[in-house]
Design goal:
The structure is a homodimer of 290-residue chains.
Chain A: E1 2-6, E2 11-15, E3 23-27, H1 33-40, H2 45-56, E4 61-64, H3 73-87, E5 92-95, H4 99-112, E6 119-124, H5 127-140, E7 143-147, E8 149-150, E9 153-154, H6 158-174, E10 182-185, H7 197-212, E11 216-217, H8 230-244, E12 250-251, H9 253-266, H10 274-289
Parallel strand pairs in A: 3-4, 3-12, 4-5, 5-6, 6-7, 7-10, 10-11
Antiparallel strand pairs in A: 1-2, 8-9
Chain lengths: 290, 290
């Protein structure tokens, strides 16, 4: 199944055995004090620089999240979306739990890219979320990330998460949103506190792929929280998650792109290793120039 | 399914959701000029040092291969086995295509470890191999690695490799060798010259696990031959291969142990991340001491 997203100048196709699409995660103040402070001051210069750096590092789509204490998302999210759209040509994933902020940002996106199509990040299985977010997705003709959690929070069993995925897909289709525009996030918890955390995520991914074949994202880095040498764990987890069915993980592209390119190569999505070798040569040139 | 192998002093259990067992690959002159020259001169000091270094790096079992031009394996393989057994307590994988050399080495192994059980590496689906190697495996009560290739060489399709695995398991069982003593190698070719190379291997692994549940080894590093930054590719491939069913890859333990520990952690085989953290602290102490 293929999801098409786009900016004014660039179309990104997700799925259908294409190379993995990377959604850049870094425009998000969670855990970033400096960015949070800048956003509170209405200063979007860091956002602009992060957009440029992530595009340069090979992110195909950029997530934009300005949610922090004392930030008026309804005012700032559309501004951030405008700044990022002016800086780079990557399509955006507009990331907020606030439907009014999503609507304001979608208006800006539509104005700057009338033929474009962003991702709304996110809806989940809660009735309140489904009934407020999916109509926006329909109205603006976007794709949407569906988190496999509901009123009960994050669920412990793969079967429960698969049921939430099913609910989100069914509700979207009932509103006339095509299934290929729903991107499921099977959610990763921390393996240091729950031995089964990654296994449950991988099992959910496999079952969602088998049952619906929809595209899937994943914020893989949570899995290694609290442990040393997190990149080794995150890289191994991404390899397993992509092999299981994740097609557009949300990541720090500068850190994980080499391993994702290796995974695509191994999964037969990079004939003659052309993408792998091109990225390697680019890193070498940079290392030499720096 | 569980395979037990052992030396005089150490038992290693493979499979049954235990942590991945690493077979150390470095005592093998293929591509190592210095080792090949030493073996031709009958000098086993490098072999002894490699044995110690690999055990220190976390290899659970050591492969011993002395096959090089102008080396008399029948004389040298038992000598090498003796040297390694005197140096380390890891069980061995005795690696030769020469049945007489295997027999001579198995005699030494039996004498030095009467209660032990090595691995014979390897048999394949060729009639000549099956009829010469499996009787030795039966006679000496060893485990055996079965390569999924036959008179036609390495086969291009997963289905063909699965059929060879089936043949090897059936022939072993017909001789009274228990199925759990057969360790299948689904073989990895080079992805830079064949886009499907890794995919076929992964598909074979999944099918062998589903159909027989036997333990599986894999020499994963071939997959990246001819490409730069091979460790990134090898690590990603190992992660996918272990998730698919490989339980005892043959590897350079010093290079890949961190990623394998991360994979075991993610697959729920390392409660409280104890093995992962212990290995991390050991590496840190070494780095500080060095």
């Amino acid at each position: 199944m293929e999801t098409r997203v786009g900016s004014a100048t660039k179309t990104v196709l997700i799925g259908g055995d294409r190379p993995t699409v990377l959604i850049g995660e870094r425009i998000n103040p969670t855990g970033k004090k400096k960015l949070a402070a800048a956003l509170r001051a209405g200063n979007l210069e860091i956002v602009r620089r992060e957009a440029l750096a992530q595009a340069e590092a090979g992110a195909d789509i950029l997530d934009v999240n300005v949610g922090a204490a004392e930030v008026d998302e309804v005012a700032l999210l559309p501004e951030a979306v405008r700044v990022v759209m002016e800086a780079v040509d990557a399509p955006l994933s507009i990331d907020s739990a606030n439907p009014a902020a999503l609507r304001a940002a979608l208006e800006v996106y539509r104005r700057l890219a009338p033929e474009g199509k962003p991702i709304v990040n996110s809806v989940n299985g809660e009735e309140r979320s489904l009934s407020r977010v999916l109509p926006l997705v329909k109205e603006y003709g976007t794709a949407v990330i569906g988190l496999t959690m509901d009123e009960g929070g994050i669920l412990n069993e793969a079967e429960e998460r698969v049921a939430v995925a099913h609910k989100i897909v069914a509700r979207a289709e009932a509103l006339g949103i095509p299934r290929e525009d729903v991107i499921i996030d099977c959610l990763a918890l921390t393996v240091s506190t729950d031995r089964r955390a990654a296994l449950v995520t991988l099992e959910t991914i496999r079952r969602v792929r088998e049952e619906w074949g929809v595209n899937m994202t994943l914020g893989a880095s949570n899995v290694s929280f609290g442990l040393p040498e997190r990149e080794v764990i995150n890289g191994a987890f991404l390899a397993m998650a992509i092999a299981a069915g994740v097609t557009c993980p949300i990541v720090d592209a500068a850190r994980v792109r080499p391993v994702v390119l290796a995974v695509d190569l191994l999964l037969g999505r990079d004939e003659y290793a052309m993408r792998y070798l091109r990225a390697y040569r680019k890193r070498r040139r940079k290392a030499t120039a720096g």
